[in-house]
Design goal:
- The complex is a heterodimer.
- Chain A is an alpha/beta fold.
- Chain A has 2 domains: 4-30 and 296-403, Aspartate Aminotransferase, domain 1, CATH 3.90.1150.10; 39-292, 3-Layer(aba) Sandwich (Aspartate Aminotransferase, domain 2), CATH 3.40.640.
- Chain A has helices spanning 4-9, 36-49, 59-78, 93-104, 126-135, 152-158, 181-190, 210-213, 238-243, 278-294, 296-315, 342-351, 364-370, 386-403, and strands at 17-18, 21-22, 24-25, 87-90, 113-117, 138-142, 163-169, 194-198, 217-221, 232-236, 254-257, 262-264, 320-323, 332-337, 354-355, 357-359, 375-379.
- In chain A, α2 (36-49) packs antiparallel against α10 and α3 crosses α10 (278-294).
- Chain A starts with a helix and ends with a helix.
- Chain B has a 3-stranded antiparallel sheet with strand order 1-2-3.
- The chains are: A alpha/beta, B alpha+beta.
């Protein structure tokens, strides 16, 4: 049973005060808060079995290795991945994307095309621009529409035998739009292109089944789903991961080393050079356990209620406009009030203890599309309450009075 | 009036308010008296770019004193730049470069010094001082 009072008690930070007011944390799309279970896991690791993994024969090293590999299994099972070696534990989404972008350097020739969407985060645009610069490939962009969705007709007309890779986020960080990734995967495959999906914004809301989805790569960050920062994952189909060259050289990723030649280790170690974030990986597993103990169906149901309540409350404020009105969206609301700068609203509501994000949200192309300098973004998680939305709406109303 | 005396005056003015809301309202009011930069001067080289809000800042020399004008698209930011300009206006470049700004914390605007406010006080002060350095060099040449 979904019991919000109990759930909120799992998150120590939710009981602190900010500027003398109870914290209302509505910046979940930037990072999620951590439950005691995850914090305990981190403390337990450093208190009881901190060791370097995969090499030591001593007990601590074996214990840490077992826990780390068990976490990989949890990630595998959670995301519906066929094999554990298809799970590369990385430092996060950006790292994961760069592994793929770097790997494609050797697979592309001038004139090849990469398709990205207009809804992408800057970190999802730059690696591809760099890749195009290195290889002579061309970057194509799927346009968005007023509702904040992607134009699927345009997408299909961009696809051709020249397309080598399609890159799209599962959910837009700025607008909350859920993109039709199953359809997009199918269409990419029809022209023989690979597809990489950025799950950074979806992992806390949706439990994907990657085998059923059939995408070639999927990336995400643990910190968006109640885990620690500095750890994330890259899923790639085994055949793809075998094909891509290693990204970084170092320990862990090698098989034989002589000064003449080095042979690389097999998957997943080929992409895990150096001592990994052992604690982070294990805590990532603990975060997955935690979320599953609540259940993604319950999470989705509660977040849907938060979204519809917040949408209604905010739209009742005169002059407030919501950006991102797709029917398929998660609990993210980006808005502006007529004539008032987002930064001003953010500054005032911060004084009232509310954490929202203001600005471009690292998505300048979306801001350019709407011809705005930024928005206020409130993003809700399963531990947020309807009362917190009342506090937000009252604060925005107060800010509006002060600022107009 | 020296920069130090202006700072003391600002501290006194802000001390009249008990809570942050009144302070912010006063700051927004101060923004309304900001000497505005001419629209045609809102150029790339006069902008202080940030993720959050835009600030345009211009300076000229009248005699040996600096005269500033500015604008911002956000009104709280406009208030902040107005406070800074009030502190630095009609001062010599040397006095501006030597001045210590210690009133920010005292008037309850400490959070605007935070690194997350990429376009906050710090970058504005830097730009103001950049103008002062340039004009100081010009005066000395």
């Amino acid at each position: 049973m979904f019991d919000l009072t109990t759930i909120r008690k799992d998150f120590p930070i939710l009981s602190r005060k900010v500027n003398g007011k109870p914290l209302v944390y509505l910046d979940n799309a930037a990072t999620s808060q951590k439950p005691q279970q995850v914090i305990d896991c981190i403390v337990d690791y450093y208190s009881n079995y901190n060791a370097n993994i995969h090499r030591g024969v001593h007990a601590l090293s074996q214990e840490a290795t077992d826990k780390y590999e068990a976490a990989r299994k949890k990630i595998q099972q959670h995301f519906g991945i066929a094999k554990a070696q298809e799970v590369i534990i990385t430092s996060g989404t950006t790292h994961s994307i760069n592994i793929v972008a770097n790997g494609f350097s050797s697979l592309l020739t001038p004139g090849d095309e990469i398709i990205v969407s207009q809804l992408e985060h800057h970190s999802n645009i730059v690696p591809w621009q760099m890749l195009c610069k290195r290889t002579g490939a061309v970057l194509k962009v799927i346009p968005m529409n007023q509702a904040g969705g992607l134009e699927m007709d345009a997408y299909q007309s961009l696809l051709s035998s020249k397309t080598k890779l399609v890159f799209v986020n599962h959910i837009s960080n700025t607008l909350g739009t859920i993109n039709p990734i199953a359809f997009m995967t199918e269409k990419a495959h029809e022209v023989g292109a690979a597809i990489l999906i950025d799950g950074a914004q979806s992992c806390s809301h949706i439990k994907p089944d990657l085998v059923a989805l059939d995408c070639d790569f999927y990336v995400t960050s643990a910190h968006k789903m109640c885990g620690p920062t500095g750890v994330g994952m890259l899923y790639g189909k085994e055949a793809w991961l075998e094909k891509l060259p290693p990204y970084q050289g170092g320990g862990e990723m090698i098989d034989q080393v002589t000064f003449e030649q080095t042979t690389y280790a097999g998957l997943p170690h080929k992409f895990e050079a150096g001592t990994p974030n052992v604690c982070g990986g294990i805590a990532f597993g603990a975060a997955i356990d935690y979320l599953n103990s609540i259940g993604f169906d319950s999470i989705a149901a509660h977040e849907a209620e938060l979204l519809s309540y917040a949408t209604e409350k905010l739209l009742a404020i005169e002059g407030l406009k919501i950006y991102g009105t797709s029917k398929e969206k998660t609990s993210v609301i980006s808005f502006n009030i007529n004539g008032i700068h987002a930064y001003d609203i953010g500054t005032i509501v911060d004084k009232l203890g509310i954490a929202v994000r203001t600005g471009q949200h690292c998505t300048q192309p979306i801001m350019d599309y709407f011809n705005i300098s930024g928005t206020v973004r409130a993003s809700f998680a399963f531990y947020n309450s309807l009362e917190e939305i009342d506090v937000l709406a009252a604060a925005v109303e107060r800010a509006k009075m002060m600022l107009s | 009036m020296t920069i130090k005396a202006i700072q003391e005056e600002l501290i006194e003015e802000f001390a009249m308010f008990d809570d942050w809301m009144q302070r912010y309202e006063y700051m927004i009011d101060l923004g309304k008296s900001l000497p505005l930069i001419d629209e045609e001067n809102k150029t790339e080289e006069r902008v202080i770019k940030g993720c959050q809000s835009k600030v345009w800042l211009d300076a000229e020399l009248k005699g040996d004193k600096m005269v500033f004008s500015a604008d911002s698209d956000a009104i709280i930011t406009k208030g902040i730049i107005a406070i800074l300009i009030r502190t630095y206006n009609n001062q010599t470049p040397t006095d501006i470069l030597n001045a210590k700004l210690d009133f920010i914390d005292e008037i309850g605007l400490k959070e605007h010094l935070s690194a997350t406010r990429a376009n906050g006080l710090t970058s504005m002060i830097k730009k103001l001082k950049l103008y002062a350095t340039a004009y100081q060099a010009k005066l000395n040449s």
